[in-house]
Amino acid sequence: MSLPRRVLPGQTLLIGRRCSERRHFLRPSALTRLLFFYLVGVAANRFGVQVHALLVMSNHYHMVITDVHGRYPAFLAFLHKLVAKCLNRHWGRQENLWSSEQTSVVLLTDEASVLDKVAYTLANPACAGLVTSVQDWPGASSWLGLDGRVVDTTRPKVFFRARGSMPSRSAFRFTVPPAFEALSQDEWRTLVQAEVRRRERAAARKRKRASKRIPGLLRLLTISPFSSPRTEAPRGRLNPQVAGRNQRGRTEALQSRRTWLDAYRSALSRLRAGFTDVLFPAGTYELARLGLVSTHPA
Fold first, then answer.
1. What CA–CA distance (Å, rounded) separates 273 from 268?
2. What's the pLDDT score for residue 234?
3. What are phi and psi of 137, to 5 degrees?
4. What's residue 80's pLDDT?
5. Spatial distance between the Cα atoms of 121 and 167, rounded to a whole number of angstroms
6. Confidence of residue 236 (pLDDT cuts 50, 70, 90)
7. For residue 3, what pLDDT is reported?
8. What confidence score (pLDDT) does residue 97 get?
9. Structural contact between residues 127 and 199, judged by C-beta atoms closer than 8 angstroms
10. What is the 8-class DSSP label of residue 251?
11. How far apart are CA 122 and CA 291, in angstroms?
C-alpha cells in the first residue's frame, strides 16, 4: 500500500507517469499532441491548476504545476482517465494504459528546484538522445508556450461524443511559476531557454563521447506503440518526494512530511480504535474528500 500524500494549496510539483510495461502508447502524433493539450487545458481550468511545463515522451510524460486550491489528485485522475480511454480506443485495446506504479509527485521547495525541474522536463528528449534540440521534438511540449501564448485546441474526435459533456474547445496558458512571479513572461522564457540550451550542449558532448547518433524523425513517428525500450528498466531506485537545491529548505520539508505522516498515522489509529472526535492533519485528501473524516485548518 502506498503512503498517503499531503495535499495543500499552493504547492509547486513535478508530476511524472509512465505507460504500462514502458510501451510507447504516447508516441508523437497529431492525436497525442491534441489530446494532451486539450485535456490538460480542460483539467487545469476545472480544478484551478497552473501549468508551467509539459513534455510528453513516447512512454511517459513530465509536467510542472502549481496546485492553487489543493486539488491536484482530482486534476490527475481526470487527465489520466481520459487520456487512457481515448488512446485505448485509438489503439483498439482495453487493458491498462498506465503503469500500476503510483504517479510520481515531487514537491519543489525553492526557486532553484523549480527552474531545474522545468528545464529537466523540457530537455528530456535531448538528454535521452532522441533529438538534438527540444524544439525538434514532435510530441506535445510547452517549449513554444514559454512566451505565454494561449494554447487553444479543439476537442479530439476520437472517443469524445460531438454532443457530449466535454467542452468543444480548451484554452489555457503555460504560466510563470509563483516562485518567479517577480519575472515577466519574457524574462522567464529567457531564463528557461538558457538552462535548456545548457543541457542540450551537455547531452551533445555525451553523445559524441559515446559515438551515438540521433534516431531521426521518421523513427520517432513510426515506432510501434506496443513496443518497449530494449534497455532494462532501472530497479531499486529511490522515489523522491521532495526536491530542493537549498539543503536547509529540503531538510525542513522532509521533516515536515515525516511529522505529517506521524500525525496522520496517529489519527488513523484512533479512528480505527473507535474514537469519533478524531481530527486528521491538514492536507489529508481522500478521506476528507469522501467526507469520512474532519481535518485541522490548513
1. 9
2. 65
3. -70, 125
4. 98
5. 28
6. low
7. 82
8. 97
9. yes
10. H
11. 39
